[in-house]
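Recap from last week: sequence in, structure out.
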Amino acid sequence: MMMTMVRTAGGGGGARVANTAVIVAANRLFSTAGRGGVAAAAAARGIGNEVGVGGPNKLGYWIRASMIDGGRSESTMALSSEKEKNNEEKKKIGSSSESVGNKENSNDKGIIASYWGINPSKITKEDGTEWKWNCFRPWETYKADLNIDLKKHHAPVTFLDKMAYWTVKSLRFPTDLFFQRRYGCRAMMLETVAAVPGMVGGMLLHCKSLRRFEHSGGWIKALLEEAENERMHLMTFMEVAKPKWYERALVIAVQGVFFNAYFLGYLVSPKFAHRMVGYLEEEAIHSYTEFLKELDKGNIENVPAPAIAIDYWQLPPDSTLRDVVMVVRADEAHHRDVNHFASDVHYQGRELRETAAPIGYH
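Predicted structure tokens:
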């Protein structure tokens, strides 16, 4: 149809009409940005002024005007449809976020709504009341064995034993100097370090098991269990004594140094590392015994036990701080036994995986 219209135009006007038709076709075939360039080229050649702008060639004006208007209307329709789609998507997103917000506002406990399908399970106690702790579950609680022998001691015989023993003794002097008889704060601060060895040992045994394609004998779980237990001691004493800013800074410094030192020590000699932890636990037993003496003398107020301690150690509801210190001291005695035992295994020339780990030894 375009060719028929071009042929009806006569003379030089026909050539110009043909040029105009080609430009208009380009406007329709190419993008909006391309039309600007084509129009500029046409203006440079003088086509637009002669054809369809008051010129004698009415046919050329009709061809140009009709085709350009058609291209503009089609592009406008496309843009409007895209805008409508975007608006619909925005409305959908807004409605979904609004519904999520309404769910969060309607829930007092702020349960996180997510499309991943991970919904927190509702856990209750044996009496039917709701379980309020996220850091541990009811099946992880236990009753501490208070009948454990607190006076056990491994006499240092070998060079590594003596080295581990005197290393721990040398660390006690600055600790006594800094905390003196502030046993609540002392317990809280020392637990930030006591939870490191189990994590480091478990991590290194985990990597060793992966490298050698072998089982660990349960020792990874046993050591990580020890680290978690020590961390729960910290969570408990945080309810009793609040750390000051300089004590928090001290934790960062001491933990950084101790973590790296113990990491290297465990790599060099696991028997030395476990022996040192055994002696550290012996010192912890001594510290908590002194804590109990101060409570019995009345120098430290025997406040009610924190709720987290009552649930974690399955203590009676009317338990006090003294009861908490008793169960924590029993935990330290068990950690003493586990680490001295692990060191003995290495001294006998065997690996930990050859002996079943004391998992759940509380």
